[in-house]
Amino acid sequence: MTFASLGLSPQIVRAVEERNYSAPTPIQSAVIPGVLSGRDVWACAHTGSGKTAAFALPLLQRYSQARRDTPRPLRSLILVPTRELAAQIGASIDAYARYLLDPVKVSVVFGGVSINPQMMALRGGADMVVATPGRLLDLVEHNALHLRSVATLVLDEADRLLELGFADELANVLSWLPERRQTLLFSATFPPAVNALAEILLRDPLRVDVPSTPATVPDIHQRAIHVDAPRRTQLLLRLIREHGWTRVLVFVATKYSTEHVAEKLRRAGINAEAFHGELSQGARTQALADFKAQQLQVLVATDVAARGIDIVHLPAVVNFDLPRSTDDYIHRIGRTGRAGQSGVAVSFVSASTESHFRLIEKRHKLTLAREIVAGFEPVETAAPVAAAPGTGGIKGKRKSKKDKLRERGGLN
Ligand code: AMP
Predict the structure, then answer these.
(1) pLDDT digits (tens, 9 = 90+) for 332-391
(2) Over the Cα atoms of the chain, what is R_g?
(3) What is the distance in A from the centroid of ligand 1 to the CA of 382?
């Protein structure tokens, strides 16, 4: 299978070849012809599966051929849960659109930064807009953007959009959109709320369900190391040095832990930064840019902040704290081993988080040997507490209010 055989133009094929995509991933093979033919799509797709190109390539193709009006009527609206994902998708679309004969104008809008430059950028219209829901609504209310002409709506990471409490904003956005349109829904998981949304929004959709492992055939070596919680930072330092990891994404459960662990690493001479939703947009962009440019060796992040970030050549991911949700395990390890690279994903497991890790293994049909690193032999035994430290707390006691979540994600 080739990109050309999916019906994509030579200009688009050239752009993906330049990115070293040798062949379409399974989700791309399934989704691209469907989108080109105007069908709705209901796709189960994880980050790393190549889903961005799956929707972006055919949309670019369709709308680059559309008649040019002034101002440009908005054709595609791509709704995403986080700023980072919005920025990343915008950058990918720009790269895919490079060689189009009729240039496509793509605008990326998200909150946490001044609205004025975004309003200016939207003057004269845009063919595609990638947006977080809150800022999109602000722009619509300011008359900077009209949604009446939208022919295709893409909901990316629909599960995360709802988890982060965007249901009201989503309903509001939908009320501005024309009823007759194409809708493409991508989600890594399908809890009842996402299924209900899909049932309402999609008409005779093409159902696509690709295997949950990232489809770019990554080679991710998963490891579980048994270690007592207080010794994790030392063990992390040992691993970084032993393996010579040039870039490591470390996941922790809370904003406090991102700062705390990053500080301890810095004191040990490792260039590390915290990455969480309460940082200013400038600080987040800078940390990510430094990490990508290899000026920062370790990024210590929460799930919400790190969701969707795409860093090619990331050799290692460490679950310093285990993910609270078993699905997040897949999202986290999918950060490494991207675009055909190999990677390692290490989980720190202690006596009190062992049962939670077993749940993760069971859910993903994994059986990982528990390794013990010399000098870090665990001595703790499981405490009879209800909450396993590092799993983010007991369900129900977690800060689950919409505002808190959105605050953590830095969402607007
Ligand atoms: P996504 O799931 O869209 O976030 O894409 C995950 C990663 O896979 C990104 O780094 C893409 O650039 C890369 N990618 C997407 N499609 C392909 C492909 N057909 N071959 C190789 N890499 C790809």
Answers:
(1) 887 776 555 678 999 999 999 999 999 999 888 888 889 999 999 999 876 554 444 444
(2) 21
(3) 41
Residue of minimum CA distance from atom 1 in ligand 1: 50
**pTM, to two decimals:** 0.66
8 A C-beta contact, residue 249 and residue 336 = yes
CATH class of 219-371: alpha beta
3-class secondary-structure state, position 92: helix
State whether the beta carbon of 348 lies less than 6 angstroms from ligand 1: no
- 131 phi/psi in degrees, rounded to 5: -145, 150
First to last CA, the chain: 40
Sketch the domain layout of the chain as residue ranges: 4-210, 219-371
> Is 47 close to ligand 1, i.e. is its CB under 6 Å away?
yes
Measuring CA to CA, which residue among 200, 188, 137, 130 is closest to residue 163?
188
- CA distances (Å), 289 to each of 118, 275, 313, 398, in order? 21, 12, 14, 31
CATH class, domain 4-210, is alpha beta
**Torsion angle, CA of 215/216/219/221, rounded to 10 degrees?**
-50
